[in-house]
Design a protein that fits this description.
There is one protein chain. It contains 13 helices and 11 strands. It has helices at residues 2-17, 24-27, 32-39, 43-48, 67-73, 78-87, 121-128, 171-181, 194-198, 264-287, 292-295, 301-314, 322-329; strands at 94-95, 99-101, 107-118, 153-158, 185-191, 205-210, 227-232, 236-238, 241-243, 248-252, 255-259. The strands form 2 sheets. Strands 1, 2, 3, 4, 5, 6, 7, 10 and 11 form a 9-stranded mixed sheet that branches. A two-stranded antiparallel sheet has the order 8-9. A hairpin with a 2-residue loop joins strand 8 and strand 9 (241-243). The longest helix has 24 residues, at 264-287.
Length: 334
């Protein structure tokens, strides 16, 4: 398992992530304060592995995509986001096969990540000994990342698909997540207390299973220990996707796509331009001014001119920021 983590993320990322999985012999010679810094991703680690983000960051180092972009992201379809990411070389950002809570709603937010692995008492002992309030480590491990959540975050956690004995999120932890973030989760594992989670109006969640059991995630569990959290705020595998802290999560229609923060605005603007073109095309088709073949192909110069005039006439009534419309209007006809 340790070698799998290293190979999954490459030598640099793997070595950093493996700081969370420390041998007991090393722990005996390291002061708790120093070990706490080695345990999970630090601010500097997050910044190092998100170098293409040039904007604001949270104190923990995560990219802070502006709220205005998150608001506009809610109108983006999975197909529109996927196309932009593919064009930018991000080929593996989509995951489906989820059980959804409030599946008719759209989940948008900034990722805060965690990783569980199968329980191992020696590693569990080392990690539990690092618990401090300063490190947001109070109570059970399943609460540690929850205490770090900020408004509009999405808690993204890999619990290695564990079902029976796996739920680390029930209605109590779910209420805590919702109170901190006002948002939902993407959880590669099972949840419990699903009736209580359903009562949270905007707790839009994508999970693998529902199971009435609960996980055993502390040394107090003794032989029953089945989960050890080895990473917070670091690279996280969700199905076939490598998720980074600060990625923008877009979950809708049964699927979830994880958008690198540096591409979030491009995804939004590209989708908005598509919506404008679709609105114009549909309007002209209903009027019978053009044929489907004309609208569904590369537009002629005459159609482009007509489109620009239509935008000028309707820009106060279109659900797209005026600056995007003005940018299109000012582009040359080709």
């Amino acid at each position: 398992m340790l070698n799998d983590v290293g190979s999954r993320f490459g030598n640099g990322l793997g070595s950093t992530l493996l700081k969370a999985v420390v041998f007991v012999a090393v722990a005996a010679s390291v002061a708790p304060a120093a070990l706490a810094q080695q345990g999970f991703f630090t601010r500097d680690d997050v910044i190092k592995y998100t170098p293409d983000w040039k904007g604001e960051r949270f104190p923990d180092g995560r990219p802070k995509v502006p709220d205005s972009i998150l608001d506009r992201m809610k109108s983006v379809t999975l197909e529109e986001a996927w196309a932009v990411l593919q064009g930018a070389g991000f080929m593996h950002q989509y995951e489906d096969g989820w059980l959804s809570i409030h599946g008719d709603q759209i989940l948008v937010g900034r990722a805060l990540t965690s990783v569980w692995m199968p329980g191992r008492p020696d590693i569990q002992k080392v990690i539990e000994e690092t618990q401090t309030a300063e490190n947001h480590r109070i109570g059970g491990m399943n609460a540690w990342p929850v205490d770090m959540l900020q408004p509009r975050d999405v808690y993204v956690s890999d619990h290695f698909g564990l079902k029976e004995g796996g739920p680390s999120i029930g209605d109590n932890v779910g209420n805590a997540i919702y109170a901190k973030s006002g948002n939902g989760i993407v959880y590669n594992g099972a949840v419990r207390d699903i009736n209580g989670l359903n009562e949270l109006p905007n707790f839009t969640a994508f999970v693998r299973y529902y199971d009435p059991s609960h996980h055993y995630g502390s040394l107090k569990s003794g032989r029953l220990l089945n989960s050890t959290m080895v990473s917070i705020n670091g690279p996280t595998r969700i199905g076939e996707v490598l998720v980074m802290p600060g990625d923008v999560v877009l979950g809708r229609n049964g699927g979830v796509i994880f958008i690198p923060p540096q591409l979030a605005e491009k995804v939004v603007v590209t989708a908005e331009r598509t919506h404008l073109e679709d609105a114009f095309g549909h309007a002209r088709l209903k009027e019978g001014k053009y044929t489907a073949g004309q609208i569904d192909a590369r537009w002629s110069a005459d159609i482009q001119k007509d489109y620009h005039e239509w935008l000028k006439q309707n820009e106060d009534h279109l659900p797209v920021p005026k600056e995007v419309i003005e940018q299109v209007i000012n582009e040359p006809i080709r």
